[in-house]
Each structure stands twice: as structure tokens, then as C-alpha cells.
Prior knowledge:
The chain is built from 12 helices and 21 strands. The chain is an alpha/beta fold. Strands 4, 14, 15, 16, 17, 18, 19, 20 and 21 form a 9-stranded mixed β-sheet that branches. Strands 5-6-7-8-9-11-12-13 form an 8-stranded parallel β-barrel, surrounded by 6 helices. The longest helix is centred in the middle third of the chain and has 21 residues, at 217-237. 48% of the residues are buried. Residues 165-172 have low confidence and may be disordered.
Amino acid sequence: MFVSEALNINEKNHLTIGGCDAVELAKQYGTPLYVVDETAVRRHCRTYKDAIDKFYGGNGLVFYASKAMCNLETLRIVCSEGLGADVVSGGELYTALKAGMPAEKLCMHGNNKTYEELVYAIESGVGRIVVDNKPELDTIDAICREKGKKQKVLFRIKPGIDAHTHSFIMTGQIDSKFGFALETGEAHDIIRHALTLSSIEVGGVHCHIGSQIHELEPFRQAAVVLAGLIADIKAETGYEMKEMNLGGGYGVMYTEDDDPIEFDKYIEAVGEALRAACDEKGIALPFVMMEPGRSIVGTAGITLYTVGGIKDIPGVRRYVSIDGGMCDNPRYILYESVYKALVANKAGDAAVDKVTIAGKCCESGDLIGKDMPIQSVEVGDTVAVLTTGAYNYSMSSNYNRIPRPAMVMTKDGESRIVVKRETYEDLIRNDI
Ligand SMILES: *Cc1c(COP(=O)(O)O)cnc(C)c1O
């Protein structure tokens, strides 16, 4: 019945997460409240890591895409599980370094890394920078020459696979702000150019084909396409790139309509496809990297709210207003994302109600979801929205000057604060 193995129902008919009563957590820490189960995060990290060992002889590294949920404790946990991290800004880089992540296990992304961010990344010694465009490559080379450093880079490639559609198509992806196109020869050109730069170590190629993907085939195809590029460059220049980063995008369960694939299956499928492609093309098996974000933290997290007003509009719908909304979870207003919600204090009851959960911001689109099936809701109930671990806290805002919620982690029936609730004082901290 649940979208996450971290969730259960106790003898009081209350939702539990990581063995903690969600209603008690709401009382103890207040709402809105992000709750993340540490055990689930660790389990997801291990699934990926073990799969690289089992299906790919350990010849790879898993990077946690920190943009999914970026704070010190999450990065410490991921780091202690042996994963590296992806960062896409100076702020994410700073957080990862402060969390103790070794710089060589960091991968720097972004389609417009500023000069200052590039200097920061290079001076910190990040293991890899994923190059997005030619001016950026030349800037990296110039910074490295000035500092007497050599930087390993990967190239972000548009493999021409659109995995956002269900029947993915092989064209039409040239129109993306990220990376170098294959079809136009742009990808080949930039790699040949990089091979002439003395301060650049050409590590390999990268792609990221989308997000919340529930199929194996796009990943297989992406791996084969990138292997083809490695073989092309080898044939043209004699230089064989050793690394391939296949990005993230592995889907998770938001509602019962999602049918995610076990994470380790991705590595198994990609491993098989790569072995065949590399054999055929006469190149060595590359060192493989993956960058899961959502699938590490997504189902590990829930958000707890308290129900305020309830409004019945006869023949239209029933609005249930909560004490959070688009500030802590902007995914409905951004993408009309679908979530599962339940009344945490009646978790085992049948979902007999159908309600539209509304946030408290001054926007009609500020909803958690429309016409969501849920237990019968009353004022004062604790509502839990599930699968909010990814892209909720990290996308949160202070719109309407609403302080960000606290984040609590659970582990084996214990809970602790990992991000403090913002105060009104925090809101004006930088105002002059
Ligand atoms: C967003 C992103 C990821 C993570 O994607 P998920 O869908 O959260 O797994 C990985 N790599 C890159 C380059 C990204 O932009």
C-alpha cells in the first residue's frame, strides 16, 4: 500500500517513518516538517554501490546528485556510504566540501558555471568537471595554465535520446541548453579540440537523458551511443577515453501508478549493453559513473502538515488547506506533479475522501494536488505527503516570507533535527 519501505502503520493507526510515529514527530517538532529516514537513504546508496560491484566488477563510482536534497547531514551520510557527489554550483560545492566529501569524489556540472565557480572547483581539486560548452573548456584551460594545474574533464553529450516521452525518440534533442550535439559533429569537434589543450585531461563522456524514467532501454541506448563516440574518437585520433558517466534519472514511486525498476537493474542492463558494444567496437570497458538523485532520497522523505481550513464547493471540489505548500514543495506548481497523501493520524483507514490539498501562498496554483484520494480529513489532522525527499527542500523558497520548515531524520525509532526551522529573524538577515 505504501510507496516507501520506510513507512508503516502502528497500533494507534498512525503513520510511522523509520519506526517513529509521524503524529508524534509533528507534535514534537511542529509543522510543516520534512522527515527523512536515514536508513532508507543508506539502503538506496548501498543498492547502487553493490550493483556496480556485482554487475560491473566494481569498475565504477556512484555520485549522489546533490541538487535532489542538499544539506550537510545528507551529504555526510552519502559520503560515509562511499558515494561521491555531483554539484552544480558554488553553493553545492561548498556544502559538499563542508560535509567532508573528498574533492576528488566530486563532479562539477552546470551549463553556465561562472568564472568564480570554475576557479573554486579547480582550486578545491574536484575530480571531474563536466564541460558544457566550448568557451567554458577554454576558460578551464586558461585557469589551469595560470595555476599550473591539470584538470580532468568529461564532456556533456546530447545522445539524441528523449527519455521523457514513453516511446523515446532518437531525434529532436538537439534543442537542449545542455551539452554538445552528436548529430552535428559538435561533440567530436570539442573532444578533438580538448586533446590539443595541455592543461586538460580528457577523461570521457557524460550524458543525462531525463528524470523519473521507468524504463531500461533509454539507458542501454545511451551507453551504446556513448561507446560509439569513444570508438569514433579513438579511430580519428588514437586517443581512447576511459570514462563514461550515464547521469541519473532513475524513477521512483510517487503513487501506485508508478512502476519503478529496481535500481540495480539499471546497472545490470547498462553493464550488459556496454560489454557487447565495447567488444563490437574494439574499445576497453570504460570506468562507469552514475548520478542518481531522486532515487537516493525521494521515497526516503515525507512532509507533515497540519490541516487548517476546509472548504466544500458543492459540485466542484473540496479544498483542504495546509500550513505549507509551494514554498516547501513547488513541484505541483512547476510540473503538476502527482503525490500520494494520507491522514497520518488515521493512516490505516480507507481513503474515502477526495480532496484538493491547497498551500497557504497567495497563488491559486499553490496546490499539493488536485482531487487526491485520502482518508476523511478534519481540521487539526496531520497530513503526510509521501515521496517528498527529492526536489522539495532543495527547491524551497521564502515566497510570502514563509520560513522554511525544519528537517528531521529518523533512524530505527529515533529522530533528530538535521536542518533547523527558519525564524522570522532569518528572513530579514540580509536586509539592509
Ligand atoms: C538532475 C541530474 C541528475 C539527477 O537526476 P535524478 O532524476 O534526480 O536521478 C544527475 N545528473 C545530472 C547532470 C542532472 O542534471
